[in-house]
Structures are given as structure tokens and as C-alpha cells.
Amino acid sequence: MFDPKKRRQHMREPILETEPASIRRIRKSQNNKLTAMLQVRNERGRYLEEVLHNLSDFVDEIVIVDDASTDGTPDICRSYPKVVRLEVLEQPLFAQEWRLRNVLWQAAVSTSPDWLLSVDADELYGTQAKQAMRELINQEHADWVAFRFYDMWGGRTHYREDELWKLHQRHTASLVRYIPEYPYFYPQQNHHVPRLPLSCMVLPGINTELKVQHLGWAGSLEDRVRKYLRYKRIDPDGQWGSLEHYESILDPEPRLVPWKEEQ
């Protein structure tokens, strides 16, 4: 279980800023509704079912936007009782990721959430993160929470760590309090769009040491090559990301570190 006495091991105290009373009134320390939001596309046979099962353990509701899947992915989503809204797009927006993020955000906030957890269809929250979630949202001093994300590589026993692959060495904000009428916006990028609106980050937040597994690179070499080709097709000039990073996907001998969930 998450031990509040060990809070300093998991969290950095937020920097509080002066803010309007209207925002302060929205914060509450109990009975907060936690809503997960996902954008999905052709996830059958990958990690979606495991992710939805994982989320169902600790969130109250799930909102999903399906980006014009052709493999029956919406049927998987409908089979989970906590999925309260599923929006299926007729035309894909994958090549305009900022528009897709906006559609998902609007769908999620329409369900009147207190907190939103932005999850990709290949991410699993660890046991300690799940156990800590209610404490993280039932407080009045912080409006976003960041976690440590690990790029699992070629399976689930190791994650990648080298000069170009060090996501876990920084914090990634994925949990945010929803404040009605606050100005939320995403940058107009076609690729590598932040999972939360940029304007969230001017509010006070918490960095934790709680872990999330990213399984996007955990599959076969063929899977990684397909992702590499997709990245190069969407962003051939490196406008949205690093070309060096894209090329490193094909590294035949990456540096891998054994995975341990415990802190």
C-alpha cells in the first residue's frame, strides 16, 4: 500500500502561486471523480484490453475517442462497464494529432470530471501508483500530478536507457484537475503533442516517483520497425521530433536495464 508517511519518497511539494478565489473554490479534498481519457486506433491484439482492465481497477469512468479504427477496436471499448463515452470518428485525425487531442479533451470534459488521467493505449500504471491515486486527487493544493514513465523494450523485463532514451529520468504530467472555464489549449503540432493542455502547467503541481510502464516498444522488432516507418512518414524532416531519436529505434544493441516496479 502507499504509505502517507513516506510521502517525500514519492512526491515533490508543489510551488503554490497566487490564484483567483474562483479556482480555489473548485478544489476539494474528498469525493473527487477520476476520469481516464484515451485516444485509440486499431488496437485489437495489442495492449488495449490490458490497459482498460488496469484502469478499471482505480478510475471511476473512462472516455475514449476511436480514431476511425478498422479492426473492431470500438467493440473492445464497449465491453468495459466503466467506458461511459465512446466517440468513433469516421475520418482519422492521427496525422493531425493536436486536433485529435482536442476532440478527446472535449469529449472527456463533457462528462463533468473532477480529475482527468490522460492515458495512451499502451500504458500500465504500477501497483503503487494505483494505490496512491485517491490521495493524489483528494487534496486542495495541487492541480496536476506527474509520474515516471519507462520505455519497456522488447518485452516487459527491461526498459531502455541511453542518451536518447531517458523518459523515466524526467517527470511526465498525465493527471490534471479539471477547472471549468479555465483556458485549456494544445499546441498546433501534428506529432508528439503533449498529453495535457500546455496551460495546465502554470498551475501548481506535484512530481512523484510513481511508475508507469510504456509498452509501445515492448513488442517485436517488426512492431518497432512499423512505428519507425510511421514516424518518418508523418515527420520526415524532424519538425516535431528528433530525427536522431527516430533512427535510434533501429539500434540493434540498445542499452537495457532490468525493470523493478518497487521504488
From TrEMBL:
Pfam families: Glycos_transf_2. Residues 40-165 form the Glycosyltransferase 2-like domain. It comes from the Bacteria. This is Glycosyltransferase involved in cell wall biosynthesis.
